[in-house]
Amino acid sequence: MIDKLFGWVDDRLALSRSGRHLINKIFPDHWSFMIGEIALYSFIVLLLTGVFLTLYFVPSGSDVVYHGVYAPLRGQRISEAYNSTVNLSFQVRGGLLMRQMHHWAANIFVGSIVVHMLRVFFTGAFRRPREANWMIGTTLLILAIFNGFLGYSLPDDLISGTGIRIAFSITESIPFVGTYLGFFLFGGQYPGTAIIPRFFILHVLVLPLVILGLLAGHLGMLVKHKHAQFPGRGARNDNVVGSPLWPTYAAKAGGFFFLTTGVTALLGAAVQINPIWQYGQYYPYKVSYAVQPDWYMGFLDGALRVMPAWELHLPGHMIPNVFFPAILLPGITFTLLMLYPFIEAKLTGDVAEHHLLDRPRDRPVRTAFGVATFAFYFVLFGASATDVLANYLSLTLNFVLWAFRIMAIVVPFIVFAVTYKLCKELQQTPSAGKRQQFNLILRSADGGYTTVPAEQYPGYDQPELAPVDVEKVELTADAAQQDGDEGVYEIPRRYR
Amino acid sequence: MPDTTDTPAPEEPHAGSGHATGGARGEPVSLDAPQFAVAARHPRRAEGAAAVSFFLSFLSFAAFGAAYWQAAPNDVLGISLGVGFAAFGVALVTWGKYLMPRGPFEEPRPQMATTPQERAEFVGDFASRGKVAIERRGALAKLMGAAGAVLGIVALFPLVRSLGPKPNGSMYHTKWRKGSRLTSIDGRAVALDDIEVGGIITVFPENDVGGALSQTVLIRVQQTGDVVTGPGKETWGPHGYLAFSKVCTHAGCPVGLYQELTHQLLCPCHQSLFDVDTGATPVFGPAPRPLPQLPLYVDSKGYLRAQAGFDEPIGPGFWYRGGSNGSPQ
Ligand code: FES
């Protein structure tokens, strides 16, 4: 039956021809390659839970009176967006779980993109021929951050509303076009009436489609280039060593998808996130306390806080304060990030194709530069909690602010120096981080001891093997003839 | 920053890392090769673990179904679903990691760069046909370009243009006018005796109660006498009252936390501090300009009113805000 069906399809689509290479695609076995997978899987979770949420969310700013089950809000005039979010949290079966899973998955999505990007950066996986894929990846990070912001802005609660207000101010600060851009985006002067439906359609349709398209490009290029890999185990620039897609990788990656989903569901069940009913409806004049965006916007918030109170006055024009931390800084960062592969190639003069990955220590300047840059953003991230820290540590806000201003400048240099030194030290210690070489200590007849390097751990029955080409596998005569039924191969006992 | 001085990382083949037991590259391999043995040292144990895990996921999914049917609370739903997925995942990963051929396997990787010949052939095909088809039809190509350009312009205008109105003067004015009554959020006009010293409320003009841009804080700093915050503002603060735009000049958050002892207004977003007595000048944080002050007077019935609107644009800066005092062009 299956045979017939497959034959029918195959006759019409030539599946066997392309399918063979697909199922034989080799995936290197290294844990760090799973980080990008987490991003992919959490995106799928986002799509699925997101579809559920759109069934109940009403993207509208018009007023309704709350009549739901949450007593503190009853009788209040709130927006449809806020109303429907509260209702889907309390009155829709599984609604709160889906909402919390969606929010957790978004945090995991952006987080795993960042970590994946660090892996790619520090191992030099962005080098030729993967420069374009690095740029797609950077674009995906930017879009993920944007879409995350749009998403948590939709419920129209007090905290996210404050975030939208800041976003409007930041848009306005852009020279020449900012004011118009803000008006076109918001449908007029703040707060406008259009923002929730517009953010909604961007969040659930436009950006996901763009992300999906770029993701297809990202993965398509990955298939074309094949994975980069760490040296060792017979890995060379002109091959890929690892496990084939079918069946090993299908099982591992499929399992990993369910694991990611499972962890997201457990987080959604057990760890409350964004309890908007506690924040209340957004009103532009209402003051909210402890305003903190989602973590991936933290560096922006921190940058806004540590920026000195400067503005640039030009004849008839001005460049507002928020332009520098919120437009210029991310603008420079992401541009440099995009162009980094080319900058590095230019400076090193290394334009060869690289499919073998670097150990970070072997590239001390790149590694130190990367860690220092990351440290800078980490300081900014920390700076988004100046008020909390001042409270918690009983310090003056003034002290904490200045500490962060100084750290933002000093820490990257210190981190650069330390990382550079550390890389150099590690280079001097060739055994660090490598698998131990086993030694056999032999005692001779006259009582003397000699040490002989052993090929493998004595008694270990699985020696390191050289890679074999999956497409060159021959069925042994004995395997092919097992039960006489032509075309049906009995799998040898060993892998049953 | 790249490593101009570093020695290149080892990119040399590490083939076979020691003792290869497999066949040479590209040669046929038999299914009996050790690479096809399962990865686990104790396949039975791995199989058992996977089986237990699958069974757990079976139970959890069933529990999720029952919980959903019974409208169980969020944590019961989530934990049953999460454990189901996670156990399913663990079982599959165990299966893939321990009960499948241990490898390693390899496949060849062609270099990405094409050979000069391949490229020459492609470019040749493209150019030769292109010459015949396009270059001889120069006028067509130009017309096509013109039509496309029109489409591009149309996309910007009116399509993008109609997304919102032009700013015009709206960045310079609020709804505050000469004579506007100071009105609280519940719609009551504020009278002279409504606020005690040290008190603060948010007020709006009567025609824009709740307005995001006209929101203003009204503070009573003393019982009697005019409060003068600067030259030219001698009459702006009657009977100890001062009014400032509530929109932070940094990024637009409502500045609503008043510290009575120090006479300072705090913005909760990025902790800018404004000194009320000197005209809400910023004394700490990123806010670059004072909060604009609303000139007040008390009418014959004892209600507070605005002498005029704000004399400068309120809120954060923007490109078209001229000069430092921000007078409208
Ligand atoms: S918005 Fe007030 S300090 Fe930033």
The shape of chain B, in one word, is flat
> Distance between the terminal alpha carbons of chain B, to the nearest Å?
47 Å
Pairing-aware structural class of the strands and helices of chain B?
Answer: alpha+beta
Biggest interface between chains: A-B, 152 and 124 residues
> What compounds sit in this structure?
FE2/S2 (inorganic) cluster
CATH superfamily of the largest domain in chain B: Rieske [2Fe-2S] iron-sulphur domain
CATH superfamily membership of the largest domain in chain A, which one?
Cytochrome Bc1 Complex, Chain C
Main sheet: strand order of chain B: 3-4-5-6
User: How much of the residues of chain A is beta strand, in percent?
Assistant: 5-15%
The CATH architecture of the largest domain in chain A can be given as: Up-down Bundle
Oligomer: heterodimer
Q: Which geometry of chain A do the CA atoms define? A: globular
Poorly predicted regions of chain B are 1-23, 323-329
- Would you state the CATH class of the largest domain in chain B? Mainly Beta
The number of E-state strands of chain A comes to 10
Output the number of helix runs of chain A: 17
